[in-house]
Design goal:
Elements: E1 3-6, H1 12-17, E2 22-28, H2 38-41, E3 47-53, H3 69-89, E4 92-95, H4 105-108, H5 110-136
Parallel strand pairs: 1-4, 2-3, 2-4
Helix pairs in contact: 3-5
Amino acid sequence: MPLILRNDIITLEEIQSKRKEFFCFGDNVQRWGMGGMARICRGEPNIIGIVTKWAPDRAPNSYFDDATILAQVSLIEEDLIRVALLSIQEAVHYPIGIGSGLAEMPTRAPLTWAYLQTRINQIKEFSDIIERKKAVL
């Protein structure tokens, strides 16, 4: 199954009705909090959090910024590796707005945001290649 990039919002009903598929949402490094999509996704067994903030609050040091891009990229990669590996076997839904809501990545950490966008597009290309190869076999 491929990586599915989506423009729409994922619903709890969809997450619960498609237990063999995975759904991504923007998460924080601490992996708790119920803001944004976490309110819908947190606690469901078929979700993948993609880190986009340090903490689940609005304090200035809770947001990513490009001063610590290396640490942020390392954490993002840990989550994206799971997305890439799962997308070989299962459908993985990825809302393209991850990081642009409460995390404010495009303005607070534009280089980290660009990295996340580049990597998700690379994983999508890889997923599509795998799907084409499976169709030939």
